[in-house]
Design goal:
Layout: H1 2-8, H2 14-17, H3 31-36, H4 43-53, H5 65-68, H6 71-102, H7 106-111, H8 114-142, H9 160-186, H10 193-221, H11 226-271, H12 273-291
Length: 292
């Protein structure tokens, strides 16, 4: 993985390369860029641009906190964290359910997690293509010209919130539909294992697919601090996931598997109003934040 980054992955930090039009320092280029960049005509100009642009901010361990207090970012992150928390609840409660229902040992329980892992592997490249196609469709509709892949697209005149979240919401709703029967099927005295594994596969696939556009949106609306925005998302979702993992087994024991699954699915559906608010009001909030 390190070799791939060293050879092929370009620098994307806005503090260094701006929108992608400013070349990074020589030591910050992947090997393939040295092969492509044989022309050095504007080297002095590039260095001057880089120096004026990059009075870089020093790393700040608390830089993620202000992002949580932005209206748009907060609603995006908090609902994404609820989705992740519900997913972790399903994963955490699975071993107890499998061992008590089928008398499985730890190896057999572990094998039942394979469908959950296979789903994301299959869907990841497909979601990438869906995201690209959706982005091109909205740029045509908005009359915005697409630019070179190596230069970051200006999103000021694009409904980027709708472009990203309509994909994520579709997969969240499909995953909710899978969780509803999953809980009640697992509550049967002898639940059919193939049906359980298929529903786990759908949940893993759809939950992973919903995160991809969400992560892209977090970076889109925080282009100057993408790492801090990503850290903010990780902070919120891990805190909520920890709470979900702590309560899921007591919840299963108190209200049962069917109602636990129903609770997770309904919370996803009802709280999706957070993302709908971002889709409707997000562009206005983004413009207000840019003027401030």
């Amino acid at each position: 993985m390190f070799s791939i980054y060293l050879l092929f992955i370009p620098e994307t930090c806005r503090n260094i390369v701006g929108n992608g039009s400013i070349p990074p320092q020589s030591w910050n280029k992947p090997a393939i860029q040295y092969v492509k960049d044989k022309r050095k005509k504007n080297e002095n100009h590039d260095v001057a641009k880089r120096e004026t642009m990059s009075k870089k901010q020093r790393p700040n361990l608390l830089s993620s906190i202000p992002i949580l207090f932005q209206k748009e970012s907060f609603l995006i992150l908090i609902y994404g964290a609820f989705v992740y928390s519900g997913y972790i609840m399903i994963l955490t409660g699975l071993p107890q359910q499998l061992s008590s229902t089928y008398n499985y040992n730890s190896i057999q329980v572990g094998l039942c997690y394979i469908p959950i892992g296979v789903g994301p592997i299959i869907i990841r490249p497909i979601v990438g293509r869906i995201m690209d196609a959706t982005f091109r469709r909205y740029t045509r509709k908005s009359g915005v010209a697409t630019i070179d892949n190596n230069v970051q697209q200006d999103i000021d005149n694009l409904p980027i919130e709708r472009i990203r979240l309509e994909i994520s919401l579709a997969f969240v709703y499909i995953s909710s539909i899978a969780i509803l029967p999953y809980g009640w099927v697992m509550g049967l005295q002898k639940p059919p294992l193939p049906a359980v594994l298929v529903m786990l596969f759908i949940m893993g696939l759809c939950t992973s697919a919903s995160v991809q556009p969400l992560t892209a949106l977090i970076i889109d609306i925080n282009p100057k601090s993408p790492a801090a925005a990503g850290a903010a998302f990780n902070l919120v979702r891990c805190l909520l996931a920890a709470g979900g993992a702590a309560i899921v087994n007591p919840l299963l024991n108190s209200i049962g598997r069917g109602w636990t699954g129903t609770l997770v699915a309904l919370s996803w559906i009802l709280l999706s109003v957070c993302w709908w608010a971002v889709i409707i009001l997000g562009p206005k909030w983004r413009k207000q934040a840019k003027k401030a």
